[in-house]
Amino acid sequence: MNIGVDVDGVLEDFSKFLVSSGTKFFSEKFDMGLVDPEAKCIEDMFCCTDKQRRKFWWACGAEYLFRQPCIDGCAEVISRLVKEGHRVFIITGRAMTRGRGPVSLFFRGVLRRWLKKNGIEYEKIVFCRNRRTEEDKRRACLKHGIDVMIDDTVSNLTAARDIVRPILFSAPWNMENEDPSLMRVSSWSDVEDAIELA
Description:
With 198 residues, the chain is α/β, with parallel strands linked by helices. The chain contains eight helices and six strands; from the N terminus they run E-H-H-H-H-E-H-E-H-E-H-E-E-H.
C-alpha cells in the first residue's frame, strides 16, 4: 500500500509549537496574549499583524525547523509499516519549499535533515505549493498511486477523498469536522490501526 503523510500537524506538533512559542514571544515582545488556540496560523492565533508574524518566524522559526521533536510514535509506526512492505510518501505544503531558488533549496534540505534526524523513513518527498495545496496534494496522490493519505487539514483530504482513503489527524483546527468520510485518528497508534483496517 502507498501511504501519503503530511508533515506539519502530522509528523510535527505544529499547534503545540505555535501556542508555546507564540505565547512567550508575543507576551514578551508585544504584550499580546493568545486569542484563538484553535487557529492554524500565528496571525489568527494571536491576532497579530503581518510584520509581527514575520518577526515571530524570524525569532522562533529555527526552533521549529531544527529542534521540534516529532510526534510520539510516528517514526516507530512508519518503520513498522515500511517493514510490512508499505511505501511511505511525504506530501507536504510546507512554506518556502516549493520554489526553484536557493531559499527553497535550503528549506527542502532542512526538512530532509529533520526527517533523517528523527528516523522517519520514506520513499519520496513531494513538495506542494503552500497556497492551493489541495490541488497539488490531489495531483501527488494520483501520480504516486497513494492509497491512504494522512493529513490534519480537512480541505486537503476532501479534495482527494474520491481517490484515497482519507485519514484526518486530530488537531485543534479540525475538531469540529464531522465528515464521516474522513477517518479521525488522534495518535500514531491509531494511524497504525487504521491502516491495518484499510
